[in-house]
Amino acid sequence: MAHSEIGGTVVEAAVLDLIRRERAKALSPREWKFRLAGYGLGIRDVDGAQVVTRLPQGTDLGILPRHMN
């Protein structure tokens, strides 16, 4: 799946701030993903990019910037 197929957009600022705060609190990537699930968000890897999705629908919200990988 190419970036264009998933919208190629970066996650909106408010969601990105939440993701950053939760990443700073988490001790591991696994814990980070678990913490985000509590907010109804998920992260999946697609062709080397991390895509933020809304759970449980699986709706793509956008791509995380490379520096957050």
Automatic annotation (TrEMBL):
Domain of life of the source: Bacteria
Name of the protein in question: Uncharacterized protein
Native source species: Jhaorihella thermophila
